[in-house]
Design brief:
Layout (H helix, E strand, L loop, with lengths): L2 E4 L2 E4 L11 H20 L12 H5 L12 H11 L22 H13 L9 H17 L6 E5 L2 H17 L3 H4 L8 E6 L4 H9 L7 E4 L9 H13 L3 E8 L11 H11 L2 E5 L24 E5 L11 E5 L2 H8 L32 H37 L3 E3 L7 E6 L5 H15 L5 E5 L2 E7 L7 H19 L1
Parallel strand pairs: 4-5, 4-6, 6-7, 7-8
Antiparallel strand pairs: 1-2, 3-9, 8-9, 10-11, 11-13, 12-13
Helix pairs in contact: 1-3, 4-12, 5-12, 6-8, 6-11, 12-14, 13-14
Length: about 500
Amino acid sequence: MNQVVTDKVVTERPVCVSLDPQDWPAFRAQSHEMLDDMLDFIEHLRQRPVWQSAPADVRARFHDALPRAAGDLAEAHQSFLNDILPYSAGNAHPGFMGWVQGGGTAVGMLADMLAAGLNANVGGRDQMPVEVERQIARWMQELFHFPEGASGIFVTGTSMANLMGLLVARTVALGREVRQNGLTSGAERLVAYTSADAHGCVAQAMDLAGFGTAALRRIAVTEAHQIDLAALQASIAADRAAGLQPFFIAGTAGTVDVGAVDDLNALADIAARESLWFHIDGAYGALGMLAPDVAPLLAGIERADSLAFDFHKWGQVPYDAGFLLVRDGARHMDAFAAPVAYLRREARGVAAGSPWPCDFGPDLSRGFRALKTWFALKVYGADRLGQVISQTCQLARYLAQQVQAAPALELMSPVMLNIVCFRYRCAGDSDAFNRELVADLHESGIAVPSTTTVKGSLVIRVAIVNHRTAAQDIDALLAAIHKFGAARSA
């Protein structure tokens, strides 16, 4: 027994318990098998149903008690293959068109593996993973024509990025003291503006930031589903006349329902004239800047004070990889930096390299999201990613043409980007009919569209985001809609 003697106290020397493999060759062999299984999965996606519901006996296996004893890696892997892999939502599949979700890539999967092996905490400190994130921020400055001094940070997704953009705007409007004093009852009440078609996370951000959703004005939209500029101006004027303080406009580059893009230049003009913070929710549409045929639709995006978007949508990076870009990095830092002793910055050593990513957001513990994005840009290049974006829009136009040519179908909104909304014509309750038709499609495993509401009617919503989706998948979707629609009509 090893003992350490200190001042007549005998202490047993601790025994190290490591989680590393005891048999590295066996672990390596199992690892290669697991990697091959995932590569097989991606390679042969078309041979699988897009989605299938997990049976009751599979779900029951996930009600076991907490494991206390060690298990076997190969057994856990087999359980994953049998009980988890077949029953995901299916967004990697080319037939998944239900929600705005990217398909991921094999390259991204490998990059995630490298990041997990490195296990870097990218909250800060002098390390190259932080430099990778900074490089991507500089690339995004270039892509969106933001000035030197702009800042960028990875987050989970645009919901978080929208909240953070709002918090930066709040700090600019009320001063840094708001971080100490909060939204005091004596302060002038701040109000914000967005489109009635904006994503619900904008209202949620108002809630989480302490303003309350009642302080958000949901402005009506035009026939093109863009924010009504005259109604916006009238609302701002009315709020000022009521003694309120307008401070924030959230424009949308790619609305969640139909893929509309607000007139960003006009919004930027209003924001400048009214001295408001101009934020853009570009969750998926912002990366249209990579595509020469889509970028003109985003004119004015370069004038935003803050821009939120996701690499895991049109950028095809595996989940999750959201991003916030802020025009003025100093203002960004004012909203989040919180110096404390245990995060002391030094001129030398691992504690150097200030400012750190944690100075630009609420997270101190941060995964290496930047690596899979860096790999996507390095391996595919911006031009090829732009071609994929153009392709999804071309497929949307192809689908819209097929819908307009089919007597049984009705196009319900203009197609601006990659989302097509339509419905199956029927006698009786159209909403119920189309809702059940979409469920039929899901259960068939052929395709997964979703539903939304356009002009008061429930419609079939097809969001084409996946780089694997091709014309044959659109044809398969349409054939299934006609088949199941005719069967229900009969």
